[in-house]
Every structure is written in structure tokens, then in C-alpha cells.
């Protein structure tokens, strides 16, 4: 028997948990959280004890003793910008996760891992959180110094998928140039230059293509008018950017399955909105290819929407001139977390220190 690893990926309406023995999956659970349950907690951080107890109960029901774990690893949250890598959860990280400047379920990942690890007498880690920042300095500047561009993207899945693709085609990630597009509830498109993400759109609250739940880049003048129209609160505007933007704003749903069903029934508006989202994605891919000087080894599509044949075909038609298109549907985040924990446990790397 090898190292047993517990991986935790908290989302807004679920907590995904995976148990591995080395590379071998033992258990894969999705613990669902209803709107009524969530409503009991004013803030996401208030859900910590409830979600931890739910995980422990589920593991016990499946006959697993956490005392046999070698490590627990959680999805990283909205902490300070940091380079990619594996980080041990420490006091500084606990503080920043508990007092994160933005609400997001990922803020619970490191804290859930830490709580369970403490009970088992082992260490807790995070890997490649959404705030991984390897951007070139020139990419940070926007048109005003008070509004710098920020690196907030699907770092965990992007990095893992990029490495997987490089392994499959026999090249080294640290020597490759790739454009990786994560297509999910939010959409991030990044330029991976020899192992670093040198440019990427802020996929959370206001940059890049619009997505199922996010507005992406909006015309600045119109946004300013909305902010000062007196019709909306600050919270309303934030919801427009992340949560109620994109497909939700145009079509009232964040489900690509529902959008495709409506298109199949002849809904012309749904078709136009879907194509507009794809059009924004291909423009962003082109921009990242330009950031790499046109020297691109592959364009990689990943995330849940990469399962959608129509979306993949649209992007491929417009972007295949840049480089070969590779498709890796899904998010694979739990498996990616386990892989990162394993390289620490095996002594391949030393975890980085968060400060």
C-alpha cells in the first residue's frame, strides 16, 4: 500500500472529494449543497465547519479511517498572488483564506484540508490556486494605473492539462509555447511560455470573453453609466460581472446543455449568443498567440464546455491556423491535486512557503 491522499475541491453548490492510494482512485464523491442549506450561512467562510463535518461523515460512511492518510490537499483560494507550485498550509495562509478580499468557495479548500489534516496529525497543502501570478510586467499594465490587470484564472487545471499534453506529444512543458483555454462557468485563456503563464485574462470579475456566468470585458463607458444610474447597488454590479453575467444575463441559464437544446428547437437568440461567446473565445486565443509572438506548439481546450462539439468545432474552425488544436474535456482538478501532493510525498519537490 502506498501514500493515501485526500483531495478536496469546494464549489458554490457542492464539495467534491477524492481519495487516492498513490495514483489509484479509491473514492470519488460529490457532496451536494442545496440553496436552502447554503442560505443558513451569511458568508462562505461560515460554511467551514459544516462542510468539514460533511466530508468526515461521508468518509466514515464509506469505511475510511482518516488516520491512514499521508496528506490532505485542497483547492487554493483567493490569497495573495503567488507563483505556481505546491504550498503547505501555514498560519499566514489560514489568515488570508479566512479574511479573503473576495468571496469564493475555493477559499474553503485549504482550510478544509487543514482541519482534516490536523485531526489526522499530517500536513495539508494547496496547489496552483486561482491567483497564480507569473505574468510579464508589460501584461499587467492597463490604460490607467489604478486599474492594473490581474492574474485570476483556472491555474490548477490549465497547468495540469498543459503538462499532460506535453507528455503525450513528447515535448517538455518548460520548453513549450501553448495557448490554453479553460471553458467552464468562467473562461480563462492563457499564454504558457516555457513553463510560465505570461499573460491571461482575469476570468473572475471583468476581463476576456463572456462565459456562462461571467460578463467578461464590458464597454467601460456603459459600465460607468450603469454604476451611477442609481438603479443598481455595488452588489448588483458585482453580480452582473460574476454570477449573473454572460449566458445567464442573455438567456437566463448557465447550462450549455439547455442552450443547445434551445438552439435545436429553433431559438435564434440562443444560437447568436452561443456564437458570440465562441467568437470572444477565439479572439482571446488569437491575442494570446500574439503574446507568444505567433510561436505556438498547440492550442489546448479544456474545462466542462470542451465536451460541447459545437463549441469545439467553432473554435477549431477559427483557430486551427495558429497551431494544432488539442481537446481535453472536463476539469480533472481532484486528480491534479493528488498528483501535486504525490510529488511532495515522494520527495520530488519541496513545498513552497506562503508568506
UniProtKB/TrEMBL annotation:
Main subcellular location: cytoplasm
InterPro entries in UniProt: Aliphatic_acid_kin_short-chain, Aliphatic_acid_kinase_CS, ATPase_NBD, Butyrate_kin
Cellular component, GO annotation: cytoplasm
Keywords carried by this UniProt record: ATP-binding, Cytoplasm, Kinase, Nucleotide-binding, Transferase
GO molecular-function term, one example from the UniProt record: acetate kinase activity
EC code(s) of this entry: 2.7.2.7
Annotated GO biological process: acetate metabolic process
Compartment(s): Cytoplasm
Gene3D superfamilies: 3.30.420.40
Top EC category: transferase
Catalysis: reaction(s): butanoate + ATP = butanoyl phosphate + ADP
Signal peptide: none
Classification via Pfam families: Acetate_kinase (PF00871)
HAMAP family linked to this entry: Butyrate_kinase
Family: Belongs to the acetokinase family.
Name assigned to this protein: Probable butyrate kinase
UniProt organism field: Alistipes finegoldii
Gene name linked to the record: buk
Amino acid at each position: 500500500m502506498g501514500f493515501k491522499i485526500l483531495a478536496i475541491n469546494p464549489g458554490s453548490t457542492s464539495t467534491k472529494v477524492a481519495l487516492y492510494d498513490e495514483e489509484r482512485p479509491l473514492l470519488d464523491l460529490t457532496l451536494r449543497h442545496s440553496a436552502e442549506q447554503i442560505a443558513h450561512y451569511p458568508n462562505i467562510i461560515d460554511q467551514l465547519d459544516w462542510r468539514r463535518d460533511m466530508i468526515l461523515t461521508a468518509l466514515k460512511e464509506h469505511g475510511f479511517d482518516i488516520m491512514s492518510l499521508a496528506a490532505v490537499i485542497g483547492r487554493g483560494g483567493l490569497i495573495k498572488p503567488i507563483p505556481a507550485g505546491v504550498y503547505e498550509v501555514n498560519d499566514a495562509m489560514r489568515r488570508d483564506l479566512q479574511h479573503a478580499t473576495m468571496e469564493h468557495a475555493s477559499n474553503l479548500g485549504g482550510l478544509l484540508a487543514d482541519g482534516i489534516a490536523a485531526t489526522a496529525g499530517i500536513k495539508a497543502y494547496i496547489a496552483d490556486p486561482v491567483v497564480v501570478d507569473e505574468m510579464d510586467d508589460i501584461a499587467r499594465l492597463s490604460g490607467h494605473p489604478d486599474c492594473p490587470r490581474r492574474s485570476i484564472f483556472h491555474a490548477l487545471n490549465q497547468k495540469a492539462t498543459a503538462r499532460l499534453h506535453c507528455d503525450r506529444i513528447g515535448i517538455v512543458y518548460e520548453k513549450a509555447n501553448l495557448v490554453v483555454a479553460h471553458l467552464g462557468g468562467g473562461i480563462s485563456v492563457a499564454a504558457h511560455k516555457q513553463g510560465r503563464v505570461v499573460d491571461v485574462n482575469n476570468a473572475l470579475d471583468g476581463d476576456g470573453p463572456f462565459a456562462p456566468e461571467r460578463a467578461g470585458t464590458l464597454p467601460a463607458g456603459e459600465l460607468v453609466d450603469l454604476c451611477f444610474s442609481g438603479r443598481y447597488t455595488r452588489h448588483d454590479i458585482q453580480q452582473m460581472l460574476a454570477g449573473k453575467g454572460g449566458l445567464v444575463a442573455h438567456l437566463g441559464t448557465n447550462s450549455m446543455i439547455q442552450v443547445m437544446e434551445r438552439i435545436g428547437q429553433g431559438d435564434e437568440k440562443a444560437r447568436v449568443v452561443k456564437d458570440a461567446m465562441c467568437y470572444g473565445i477565439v479572439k482571446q486565443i488569437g491575442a494570446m498567440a500574439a503574446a507568444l509572438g505567433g510561436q505556438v506548439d498547440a492550442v489546448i481546450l479544456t474545462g466542462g464546455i470542451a465536451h460541447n462539439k459545437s463549441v469545439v468545432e467553432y473554435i477549431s474552425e477559427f483557430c486551427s491556423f495558429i497551431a494544432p488544436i488539442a481537446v481535453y474535456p472536463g476539469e480533472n482538478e481532484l486528480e491534479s491535486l493528488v498528483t501535486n501532493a504525490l510529488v511532495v510525498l515522494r520527495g520530488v519537490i519541496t513545498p513552497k512557503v506562503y508568506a
